[in-house]
Amino acid sequence: MNKDINILRNEMHNSISMADKYFEDGMLSNSCNELKIAILKAEEVFHITDSVEDKNVLLELYMKIAKYYNKIYTITCNKKDILPSCMYYEKLIYFYEEELKNNSNNFIDTLNKVLETYVQLLWVCLEINDCTSFERFMPKAYKYAVKLSRKSKVYEDEQYFILVNIFKGDYYKSLNKYKTAYLFYLVAMKKMKYIYKKMPNEGVLNDLIIIYNNLSDIAKNLKRNKDKIKWDNIINKLEKESEMFNNDK
Prior knowledge:
Blueprint: H1 2-24, H2 28-49, H3 52-76, H4 83-102, H5 107-127, H6 131-151, H7 155-174, H8 178-198, H9 202-221, H10 225-248
Helix pairs in contact: 1-2, 2-3, 3-4, 4-5, 5-6, 5-7, 6-7, 7-8, 8-9, 9-10
């Protein structure tokens, strides 16, 4: 049996090497095809060994191929090219949610992983206007984001709470439900503003400006002129701060 596993692992690594080579050459479809072969081998190995190490290899491959499909989509802008990524994101979510149920030792780390996957999946849903899937995945993503923000005050952990609120704002904005979108953008803004006060840097500032731009746009649609003027004034102030960051470089 060990010999068979070693053969499978070698075949898997060969396919991964080929996938990386195709990716470097810009042959993304060929790269994905090789990764599919590697995944079949990795699934077979994990089925035999049931080891954490083999499971982690498999999960890394799921994420890798999903992101490759995302990359193809950014080039072709063809929705069918991004759809396969959803399947791999859902596979990842299944494994991470099982870990959350069964293993509390790495709870925060696993929460980060499951939220990273949900964020990728929700982004795809918004890109392809799949409202049904968005509404199916968002409640759990929101629940996990709230849980993580309560357990950890590290920005990398808190960012998921901000992101899911921005996504909800984007979603309701796309449905022309501007009042609801406005509320979620406000929640995201308040959290990001608090983080920027604690940790002023260019990256956080630019993200905060994006949120304010969304609030300004919604205020315009709602004909809330005073709010729009207020958000625009804040944006102008923050853009000056952004210029200061650039001048200091």
